Amino acid sequence: MNLPGGSRRDAEDAGRFFAQSGRTWTSQMVQMYQFFLEGHGMSVAAKKKTAVVVGTGAGGAMMAKELQGRYQVTILEKGGEFRPFSLSVERMAKLRPSGLFFDERMIRMLIPNMLVEKTRDMIMVRGIGLGGTTTLATGNAVRYDGALRQIGIDLDEQFDELYQELPITTDHQKHWTKTTRKMFRLFERMGLDPVVTPKLMDADQCIGCGHCAIGCRHDAKWDTRQLVDEAVSFGAELMTGTEVTDLEITGRQVSAVHARTVRGKRVFHPDLVVLAAGGLGTPVILERSGIVCRKTLFADPVLCVAGPLEGLRQDRQLLMPFISQQDGYILAPYMDYLSFFFNKDWRLPMRDMASIMIKLADEEKAASAGKGFTSR
Ligand SMILES: Cc1cc2nc3c(=O)[nH]c(=O)nc-3n(C[C@H](O)[C@H](O)[C@H](O)COP(=O)(O)OP(=O)(O)OC[C@H]3O[C@@H](n4cnc5c(N)ncnc54)[C@H](O)[C@@H]3O)c2cc1C
Predict the structure, then answer these.
(1) Does residue 124 have its Cβ closer than 6 Å to ligand 1?
(2) Ligand 1 centre from 133 Cα, in Å?
(3) Are residues 118 and 201 in the same domain?
């Protein structure tokens, strides 16, 4: 634990540490107790239970942060550091006519942390690396749990805590470009009831480069790397480049976690295991461990429709600055890099295109199999 030992000054330091840490009340109390024990020369390490958290995306990072203290947490992450897209989109776009970009899976050459898998009809995108898919997400913090409420699941308390803890804002509106404002008014005129999107971000850092989904380089967009950093500063161990292959199950308990690294295989025997390898990664681990998963998966199908509009410069605006929620679908301005590079019909320069995302409500019809999600 990165806390000092037992003098009064140390206790004051610890008080400040907790005040600044933003951790929940329970985990603060547990750490306060540990601090007290350490201050009196008692070893906490010997008493502490251990936990392994698999994945550093939305699920894993939050769990690691919350558990560290109550448990000694080891975080196992398959990928490495996240690296945002750092080349010039305009220069790369000049290579489009060469036919170099013929398969979406090649996006990894440009953005190593973006993994694209294909079925017959769909491509699926996820993030592999520190921060998981949140590094490639659009940063929308929109609450859509109405259907859960209808079946009796009330998440008000959890959302209240999240709203306290995360930097959720609509302040980006004050930096909107003329184009964004124009599009908003157009949506209003068409009776589409646009709503400014609450975003996980520091709006003052945003320069409107439009790169939200290929990696924010300006520390404007929040992602779960911040939670991982917090967990590590509280004492968690982070192991990147560590792919969990399967779990060893004895009776009804997980007795070991098997992983592979470049240096060879590793086996962990924690008291608690949190599997948060994502909707496509977790079923693979479960199936390899002998736990059969249902062949259904809820996905988030997205279709981007673009048209010519000279000099619009939609490429220089925040992605999804506002949304229009309709029955069964959502509309929002969104310049899609995958379509731009890999869809042969998207021939115009990005600056001269208008692109709208249609996000469809899904049904549980997709199939997940041994190596992940295979058909639809
Ligand atoms: C393009 C895009 C935009 C999105 N925009 C938004 C948005 O604006 N707002 C929103 O709320 N949601 C958004 N989402 C969805 C959101 O990102 C995901 O719902 C969320 O990240 C899922 O969290 P997770 O922890 O389940 O998985 P992930 O975030 O995918 O994390 C899984 C982690 O597990 C690791 N992993 C995988 N396999 C293994 C293994 N075998 N061993 C060890 N580690 C492993 C991965 O590297 C990754 O770090 C978006 C998704 C995409 C693809």
Answers:
(1) no
(2) 3
(3) yes
Phi and psi at 353, nearest 5°, equal: -125, 150
Which atom of ligand 1 lies nearest, measured to the CA of 59? 25
The pTM score is 0.86
pLDDT one-digit tens code per residue, 216-237: 999 999 999 999 999 999 999 9
| Burial per residue of 366-375, b for 16 or more beta-carbon CB atoms within 10 angstroms, e otherwise | bebeeebbee
Mark whether 94 and 27 lie in a shared domain: no
| Closest ligand 1 atom, residue 279 Cα | 26
The CA distance from 74 to 235, in Å, is 9
In angstroms, what is the span from residue 226 Cα to ligand 1's centroid?
15
Write out pLDDT tens, residues 116-163. 998 888 899 999 999 999 999 999 999 888 889 999 999 999 999 999
Residues 9 and 101 in one domain: no
Number of domains in the chain: 2
